[in-house]
Amino acid sequence: MDIVTTLYGRQERSWQLQANCMGVDPDLFFPERGASTREAKEVCRGCVVREDCLEYALANGEKFGIWGGMSERERRRLRRARALQRRDVIHAS
Fold first, then answer.
1. What residues does 70 pair with on adjacent strands?
2. What distance in Å separates the CA atoms of residue 8 and residue 4, rounded to the nearest whole number?
3. Could you give the CA distance from residue 4 to residue 52 in angstroms, rounded to a whole number?
4. Which stretches does DSSP call E strand in the chain?
5. What is the full DSSP assignment across 15-72?
6. Which sequence spans correspond to the domains of the chain?
7. 71 or 4, higher pLDDT
8. Do the beta carbons of residue 69 and residue 44 sit within 8 Å?
9. pTM here?
10. What's the pLDDT tens digit per position in 44-91?
C-alpha cells in the first residue's frame, strides 16, 4: 500500500502510479524532527509526478513529511510566496 492511500484512503490519484516513491518505506518521507530529508528528496528528484505530489500536499494542507520534494518548511514558504503573489495581482488590478 502506498503512503497517501495509507494516510487518506482510496481517492482519485492516478498520478501516484507513476511516482518514484511507490513501494518505498513511507517512514522515509516522515523523518524525525531534525533528521535529514536528503534521502526522501533524492527519491523525489526527477520524479515525473513531483509537481502533482507537491500540489496535492499544498491543496490538502499537508503539514508533515516530504511531498513533491519539499519539506514542511519549504511548502510553508511556497504557500506564503503564492499568497503574496495573489495579493499583488489583486492590488495591481
1. 67
2. 6
3. 13
4. none
5. GGGG-TTTTS-GGGGSPPTTS--HHHHHHHTT-TTHHHHHHHHHHTT--SS-BTTB-H
6. 3-92
7. 71
8. yes
9. 0.79
10. 999 999 999 999 999 999 999 999 999 999 999 999 999 999 887 887
